[in-house]
Amino acid sequence: MYKITTNNFHGVVEIPYSKSTCHRALIIAVLKRDITIIDNINLCYDINATIDIIKKIGCQITIKNNSIIIDSSYLSYNFNVLDAKESGTTLRLVIPMMLYLFNKVKITGSETLMKRPLDGYNDFFKKNNIDFEIKQQLFIATGEITTVNCQINNLKSSQFVTGLLLIAPLVNDFNITLVDNNSSMGYIDMTIDICQQFKVKMIKEDLKIFGLKQSYQGVKYKNEVDESSYTFFLTAQLLGCDIKIINKNKQTKQPDKEYERVIKFNVIDIDKMPDSLPIGLIYSIVNQKNKKFINCQRTRYKESNRLDNMVNQLQAINCNIKIVENDIIIIPSYYNRIVHVKAYNDHRIAMSFLILSIFVEEVYIDNIRCINKSYPTFITDFKRLGGKIEELHD
To answer: What local confidence, expressed as pLDDT, does residue 181 receive?
Structure first.
């Protein structure tokens, strides 16, 4: 258990670089089968999970200062078990990569990760005669991917689309049809943008993404600032804290870029930026305005069930908040100034409640170590800006 308090929260902060874009660049670096340099690496828990896997299949990795050099010239795989740990992106992107490279994959992850949706590839695998099964937290698949002409359900996660998009131009001419033109489209656009930075051309028209057989080109990729991480200290700034954020993307396809523009709206569609829901709820209860978050259904399938978990925790501290189907309604209310909450081992929930501590007397939370999943310097930044963290022992 940790006791969180703050005093005169202010200062200068530098936001870490994106794990979402870095995951994609790392997979492309493997598929290129030569040397790639990625600048502005974020060595968070999830990125290290991907790095560990690509090292196990033969990639030579060198980390210098803020860059990582990947040499994927000589790869091999003996069907040993790969471990995605707690990273959903790693799990979903590595599976098609391994099938393309070796026609087989055996991969596991934490108990909570293996309970998250993994059925997005089912129809594609069946159509392409790829044998697959999940047993005892182990995903096993064998078979050759000869074409990527398919329909993919992007309602639960865009990562299934991204996994196939990354290998599609290497396999053959490709044509992917999505089932929804709203859910996760920003993440899909981000994937297409990164592929194009590696000289692969993809065309997106309505629900179709298509292109010719190509190969990835180029040596260097410059990673972006993480828009999801940016939302936390931005929220403190918007709520009156004297915080200067010294790095920001001028242009990006990351969906959470919309947070700064829409967070003051009375109605916010969270479907396109589900990672922003926990901190968006904190902004709303502190700001004391009527607010409605709509289309929150996909937040149930993240590191935890963020929809239910956040609302339950906020109700427990007397916030006037409720779920109506897949929407959240907030009415201004007086809430507790001494707050006891759970993080559910969810990095974004933990960071959100640490930001809440700025505006209450004390926050008691069971887990902050999970923050390392995406933002390993968050605790250091939080303390430097005026946060105080005391670990309590029974």
So the answer is: 59
